[in-house]
Structures are given as C-alpha cells and as structure tokens.
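Narrative of activities, Objective 1.

The group set out to show that a structural description can be obtained from nothing but a protein's sequence at a throughput compatible with the screening campaign. Below is one input-output pair from the validation batch, recorded exactly as produced.
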Amino acid sequence: MAIDDIVRKIEKETEEEKASIISKAQAEARVVSERYASAIEKMKKELEDKARAKAAEEEKRLIVNEQLEERKALLAKKREILGDIYKEARRTILSMPKQEYLDLISFLIAKKAVSGNEEIIVSKSQKDYFDSAFIERINKDWGEGAGFTVSSEAGNFEWGVVLREGKRSVDLTLDVLFDQIIEDLEPRLADVLFSDEG
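Output recorded for this entry:
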C-alpha cells in the first residue's frame, strides 16, 4: 500500500468519523434544543399564568377599593341626610307656637314629675311663658297635693325645663329630650337609610 493510499484511507476514515460525530452532535443538539424549548415553553406558560392571576388579583383589588370608596361616599351622604333631618326637627321644635310649646311642657311635666311639688327651672328667654296661670293649670291637672312652683333661678338652656326637688332633678330640656329621641329613632332611621336597597 502506497502512502497515497494510506493518506486517502485516513482521510476517508476521518471524513466518516467527522460525519458521524457531526451527525451525533446534531442529534444531541436537537434533543437538548427540544428539551429546553419545552422547558422554556413551560416557563413562559407559568409566567403568563402568574401574570394573568396577578392582573386579575389587582383588578379585583381595584374593584373592591372602588366599591369601598363608593360605600364611604354613600354613607357620608346618608349621614348628612340624617344630620339634616335632626337639624330640621330641632328647628321645628324651637319654632313651636307658645301655646303648643306650653302644652308639650305641661305634658312632659305630668309624665316625668315624681311628687308634684317640684320646682320648675325655665330658660331665661322663656321665663315670661311660665306665669301663674300656667302653674295653676299644671297643679290642677296633677291633682290634690300638687305644689309646682317656678324657680327664681333661670336655666342656662334655650328650650324646655328642669324639674328639681331636693337633690333630685329631671332634665326636660331640648338637648336631653332630643338625645333621647335620637337614641330611640336612630336605629329605625338607620334601618331605612342604611339598608342594602338604599
């Protein structure tokens, strides 16, 4: 065998070996590429799913926050309406005609007095309403043993009276009565104003 033949044989074997190595490398590269492509696709899908979930969560949070703000605004408006109702009721009571006012005070005294001998403290601005005719009338309405009197001391309030006998006193002023009315009415008004429909 001549050297040329040996060189050709080596070149041929080298080419065959080279082709075999390249073929194997390409096959391995395809396998690795497919494996990584699959992993990349899986990671891409996971990231997209996480992004969608996070976006949905953020959207839900924004909706909940918006609903909360709407509820706060509605609650503030309802409280404003309730405040307006109280102001209007107070204004109506304060502007009662004299006789209607005295009839209401007579009723309250008859209902809240204990002995019928209480001293009636009135506001300075309404002192002239409580004359001897008023006292005679409530003493007569109370019946035997009644001895209501109007105190010489004026109360520091704008409407109503305070009944006092010894250390006991019954406050029938507008502020106290209004607080009691609000306490009684507020749950019912709140049910109407703050129900889910309103």
